[in-house]
Each structure stands twice: as structure tokens, then as C-alpha cells.
Amino acid sequence: MENLIDIDEEATRPQLSINSTPYQTQECVLYGSIFSKHVPDLERRLAGLCDPGCEEFFEHEMSFCLRSLASSDVKTDIKLRRRFRTDHQIQNYWQLRYIGVPEPDQKCPTIIRKEISSLVHSSDMMTYAKALGLRMDYEYMTQGKLWTKGNIKILHSSLTKSIRPGNYDSSSIKSISDSSLVEISISLPESAEYMPAAKTLRDFADQLMPLCSMEKVDYWKKMFSTATPARK
Amino acid sequence: MGVTWVFEVDQTAKSVERLLESFGGECVSTFAVDISPYTPPTGNADHASNIVMHHSKCPQSTFSICPKDTFKKSPKAVCDRGFDLILSKLSNGLIIDTAGKIDINGNEYKLNDWTVRVGTAVQGTAVKGVVVEVEYDASLIVVQCREMMVEFVKYVFNKYYQTQPEIFIITEKPENYSPLDTMWQYLLIAAKLRKKT
């Protein structure tokens, strides 16, 4: 029932100005991993904790970065995501997503980052992305389930990649590892105070112990430390 | 959005409006179109410019086209307004060319099944011309209403009907008309208006 009321409120909300559009949000995120063979245990735990029902998804995600000569050290990452055809109505729709650099907040128990997303329809997305000056870094497929608990989103998915890029049929898809990725997040308005939400998220994450330990992964630091030797 | 024909006229917006009123047209509201080019910073020519457009008829949509020779060859996309915000993050590769932005503002007339928009194109502070958009609301198939639209323009204006938009001329494999086709016509007109002094 609570959800229903929320939707109504959203409909009566006055039109937002360009600076506070619903497209731009900040999110609190935690990551964890679990062996794929233990995913059924995690699902049972989530079924007990979360809102009833979950959504299955099978998506293709590509990460792009901006190709620019002037400033090669500044990297702008853009993610493109599409859902694999479940019915042909949603073909050619892509989610274009910009993920900002995480806030350097040591006290916050979760990753905080800005996020802008946009739904794009293009008959030839790859050519269009190239025309924008974007170059693909890597791609992968994720298959898993989405659960919700109030405004918390819980995703667990197994990552696969294609051994023949461009082909995404079942014969060319290969698993990346025998673990599943677990991601829990909360989306907040752009300039909202994030600390209470981050604490709620941390508390929720602790309930998944000992099955899965959710961490504030310093993925950006790791990214830079591997990037340096590669540049030599 | 039905099949639409956008063209530039060599008379004032007021006189076009009077003309429409004489045929029974009714001013229903205003409309606005903006066309902003995003160009790569100087010295970086490895990707082309991108034209970002909005139309008040689709207020929550952004149209983006990287113009090539023809519409079919040009990479293009329809996005929600979040795309504008993402573009600002791509400023290393694409910067908005504020001086080249063209705004078209004017009135929208209703004439039975037709919607006619008459607007004045302005670049910065300079008036560049008058643009008319004729839309036949009832059909999405170009071949179905092409002849009738030519007749409509001929009947109302008694000129301009000879230079037809690209989409009217292409006959092989006609696709359903989409708002992007309208925006492509605006894009071409804006490119022409920019060169005009």
C-alpha cells in the first residue's frame, strides 16, 4: 500500500526544473560476492527479508569511455545497458548511464556516487555511440534477480562474457567466474543528505551475513593501481 | 506526431498567420524548437559534431543527430532529457556551440486535421528567418499523404511546394514517419539559416 501512495504523490509533483531532474541521482552502493552454488541459500534469505516477489533479468552491459586526445588522464566512463529481448517491443532501447567518481567520504559506510541515466532509442546504437566519440572498454552479460526492500535494491547476478564478440547466443556465452556478484543500493535525490540512507543500507547488508559479506569496495583505487603498470 | 513538412518562407510570421486565419485556422497555443550544435574541441577532428534538438511537442524528449549526407546514413537517437545532463559530462569531446544555437518560437494553428506552426528563427539576437511546419495529424505513412500535403501547401501559400523534403522523395522501402524525420528537416533548415547573414 505504501508504494501506491508514493506513485500518486509523484504524479502530482510540480514539474521539475532542468537542474533537479529525476534523471540525476546519487546512490549508496555496497558490493559482495557469493559462490554460485550458494545462491539458492541467499535467495531464501532474501525471500524472508525483502518485499514479496522478485524480478528476473538478463542484460547486456557495455562500458564506454570518451576518446579524447587533449586529456588522456581524465577518464569519463559511460555505461550502456540493454535488456536482452524478452519480447521484441523493447528492442533498440538502451539505458545510457554516467557514473561519477565516488565521494571521498571516509566516514560513510557505503560508496556514494553521482549517477545520471537516460533512456535512449536508436536504430543503430553502436554507430551512434561511436559518433559521440565513445569507445568501448569492455562488455559483459549479467543474468540474475532483482529484489527490493522499500527503497533498497538488491541485485544478484552471474556475469558472463561472449567468446565471439558480437554474438550473444547461448553457444558463445561463457561464464566469467563461479561466483555471483551481489550489489545492494539506494537511490537518493541529487543533493539529499546521504548518511541516514547509507546507515540503513549498511544495517540491511549486515543481515546477509554470514552468507555474503557486503563491502565498501574501493574499486576506483584498485583501478588506478592496475592502470599505472599498464601504462609503462 | 503525423507526417510533417518543415520549410522556410520569405514572408513575415504575421502575414503567414493572417493567411492561415483567412482559411479558418485557429491559434491554439505556442511552440518552441531549439537546435544546438555540439562540436568537438578544436584540433580534435576524429569525431563529427552532434546536433541536439528539442521540440515543445515532445517536451520530455531530446533528439540527437550526427549529420551525414543523408538522414538514413546519420547516426541518430531519441532520448529522454537525462541525455542533456550526460552530454555535459562529455565536455572533453563535445562542447556546446552557444553561438550556433538557433531558437524557433511562434504560434501553433489548428486547421481541421492539420497543425501548422509558424515560428521566427533567432540565432543569438539576430533574426534569421521564418519557418513553417505543416503537420498532417491523421497519418504516419508518407506515401499516403504526400500528394495531399503538396496540394495543401500549394492551396494555402501558392508557392514553396516545389522543394519537397528528402522523405517525400524517397520511395524505396518507405518507413513509418517518426518525430526524428521532422527534426532532421529542422536540422537542415538551421544549417542553412546559420550561413545566412
Kindly describe this structure.
The complex is a heterodimer of chains A (232) and B (197). Chain A contains 5 helices and 8 strands. Chain A is an alpha+beta fold and 232 residues long. In chain A, strand 6 and strand 7 form a beta hairpin. The longest helix of chain A has 13 residues. Chain B has a single domain, classed as Beta Barrel (Hypothetical Protein Pfu-838710-001). In chain B, 28% of the residues lie in helices and 36% in strands. In chain B, strands 1, 2, 3, 4, 5, 6, 7, 8 and 9 form a 9-stranded antiparallel sheet that branches. Chain B is globular, with a radius of gyration of 17 Å. At the A-B interface, strand 5 and helix 3 of A face strand 5 and helix 2 of B.
SSE topology:
The complex is a heterodimer of chains A (232) and B (197).
Chain A: H1 2-12, E1 24-35, H2 39-49, E2 55-66, E3 77-83, E4 93-99, E5 111-121, H3 125-131, E6 134-149, E7 152-162, E8 173-189, H4 195-206, H5 219-231
Chain B: E1 3-9, H1 13-22, E2 26-39, E3 50-55, E4 61-65, E5 76-80, H2 82-89, E6 95-96, E7 102-111, E8 114-123, E9 126-136, H3 142-157, H4 166-169, H5 179-195
Antiparallel strand pairs in B: 1-9, 2-3, 2-6, 2-7, 3-4, 4-5, 7-8, 8-9
Please describe the structure with a list of short key phrases separated by commas or semicolons.
heterodimer, A: 232 residues, alpha+beta, Hypothetical Protein Pfu-838710-001, 8-stranded antiparallel beta barrel, 5 helices, 8 strands, 23% helix, 40% strand, disordered N terminus, B: Hypothetical Protein Pfu-838710-001, 9-stranded antiparallel beta sheet, 28% helix, globular, transcription (chain B), nucleus (chain B), transcription coactivator activity (chain B), transcription regulation (chain B)
